[in-house]
């Protein structure tokens, strides 16, 4: 009996004290696991925030959370600014593409009208008189980035 009392002290048989000790240990283990999980999930910026979760007073907690809120608000403002810049840039590129498309459509229409007027002036015995045949025989060259159009050949028929 003396040995049991000496090893545990005078409070060795106190069940309430044992329960409190067990509860504190359990709470400390849970808190440690939460901190470890928070550190693993968080990035470099928020690792400080995870460590600041243990406070001595409510005022310290409010100050720490206010600082964290300010940092997050600053990140939010920076992200919103970046989004606006990207949207503006996208809008400018879109307008540029649309103007390029309109200009190219105008150029294409001009070329088509010129070909329609010039086609009647081309000799009938020339290979170039048939525009559909020229389009069919033309080949796009990827290296030079232009069309290879067949050479014009005049076909003369000789009567006996």
TrEMBL record:
Keywords of the record: Coiled coil
Coiled coil: 55-89
Protein name: KIF17 protein
Protein species of origin: Ploceus nigricollis
Lineage of source species: Eukaryota, Metazoa, Chordata, Craniata, Vertebrata
């Amino acid at each position: 009996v003396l040995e049991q009392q000496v090893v545990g002290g005078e409070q060795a048989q106190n069940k309430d004290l044992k329960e409190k000790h067990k509860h504190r240990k359990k709470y400390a283990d849970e808190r440690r696991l939460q901190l470890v999980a928070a550190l693993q999930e968080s990035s470099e910026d928020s690792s400080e925030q995870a460590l600041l979760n243990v406070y001595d007073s409510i005022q310290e907690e409010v100050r720490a959370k206010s600082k964290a809120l300010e940092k997050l608000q600053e990140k939010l403002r920076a992200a919103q600014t970046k989004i606006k810049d990207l949207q503006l840039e996208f809008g400018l590129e879109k307008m540029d593409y649309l103007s390029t498309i309109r200009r190219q459509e105008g150029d294409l229409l001009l070329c088509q009208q010129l070909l329609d007027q010039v086609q009647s002036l081309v000799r009938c015995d020339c290979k170039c008189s048939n525009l559909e045949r020229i389009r069919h025989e033309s080949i796009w060259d990827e290296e030079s980035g232009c069309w290879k159009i067949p050479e014009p050949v005049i076909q003369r028929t000789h009567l006996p």
